[in-house]
Amino acid sequence: MAHAQKLEIFRGALKFKSNTDKIWGVLILLSVITAIEVVLGIYKPEILMGYVAGMKVLNWIFIILTVVKAYYITWDFMHMRDEKAGLRRAVVWTGIFLICYLSFILLTEGGYIENVYSSGYITHDF
Amino acid sequence: MNTTVVNTGTEGKTWGGGKDPLNASYGKMMMWFFIVSDALTFSGFLAAYGFSRFKFIDSWPIADEVFTHVPFMHGQDLPMIYVAFMTFILIMSSVTMVLAVDAGHHLNKQKVSIYMFLTIIGGIVFVGSQAWEWNTFIKGEYGAVQTRSGNLLQFVDAEGHRVAISDFAIAEHSTRAQHEKKNGIWFTSEGTLPAYSVNEVVKGMEANENVLVRTELLNAEGQKTVLSRAESLRQLKSNGQLVVQGANLQVNEYGKPIFADFFFFITGFHGFHVLSGIILNIIIFFNVVVGTYERRKSYEMVEKVGLYWHFVDLVWVFVFTFFYLV
């Protein structure tokens, strides 16, 4: 299994000398992202409390940072970067499509039920 | 020439057979299949959690107030620190795993064993931390009173700091005997009775001028609503049904019972994956040590079990976000 490994991340902006170096580099990146999340989660800056597309900016930042982390775990730890495009697409697009579909349906339904509660058809606070 | 063989004209082409068109072995491909389906299982759980959360969007518990404990630091309010530590442990063990895979590519048996061993240790530390987290969550801290509709009344002082029920409730002689098999119907039993009755909490609240009731409803600033003194007493007297301490599958002192259900189910299912991962890692570790892969001249098994281990880490990244951050 000594096939060639791609050693650059950030679309080639950062190229590591060896595979081991790349692993440590990705670890630093993931730790920094987690640290940012934790600091934002503890202090919850007032400026990020506004709403964009129905959700707080802070929550959007958390979700985007999570997807970034997921990308680097899959691409560099699970070596997706070195797999053939066919395998990569079969795994990633199947997952992304079904997950987006499922979340959309369930969250819409949850929002609808909340609406039924809050518009007073059912008393649930007694 | 054999007349039953048909020449398909694809010999030698990528999908003509006898090749690995995706450049991945059968075992590795099946591990990817499994990971995709397991990822969909976990997204099903997390989406269901999102459903319940959207349903109770105006009264969902605030994670920062629920998970505030760190071992050996009693009575300190440290939200997020402990889960951040757990996340780091899991990412770290992912790193040692990928280093083991890398050493496997160089057929370096000694390095593979060391890194596999470190990965197993990381996994055990993570599962242990999770057990501690569950224990703290189940025990609870302040206690609360549940209303008839299953909503919660929590208690705060005038500054808005949480007050434990045991700090102000006035214990009185209880006439309510616990139902046991030997004193009642032999085929049923009941769990431990709550330490205080609603009556004792009401008495305690009347005696302590500055105790107020906090409801689950979130106000415009995303904080829980604190009732006035008169309204607090009225709510407690007219709606209080049961004193709740800690959390289990029926009641939950932190908020909606379904929050505790999802917490137990999702982190439990993830913890079960970590446990299976540790067992798989131990099996592979011993195979490495006895030299199975050395003789095979291929450490691909380490790579496959590594894929699973990274996947467990990947799931945790999402659990961390949706349970503790968002």
Automatic annotation (TrEMBL), chain A:
The keyword ATP-binding does not apply. InterPro entries: Cyt_c_oxidase_su4_prok (IPR005171). Keywords: Cell membrane, Membrane, Transmembrane, Transmembrane helix. It is a multi-pass membrane protein. The keyword Nucleotide-binding does not apply. The chain crosses the membrane at residues 23-43, 58-78, 90-108. It comes from the Bacteria. It is found in: Cell membrane. One of its GO terms (cellular component) is plasma membrane. This is Cytochrome c oxidase subunit IV. It comes from Formosa algae.
From TrEMBL, chain B:
PROSITE patterns: COX3. Keywords: Cell membrane, Membrane, Transmembrane, Transmembrane helix. It comes from the Bacteria. The chain crosses the membrane at residues 29-51, 80-100, 112-132, 262-293, 305-325. Signal peptide: none annotated. One of its GO terms (biological process) is aerobic electron transport chain. Belongs to the cytochrome c oxidase subunit 3 family. This is Cytochrome c oxidase subunit 3. It comes from Formosa algae.
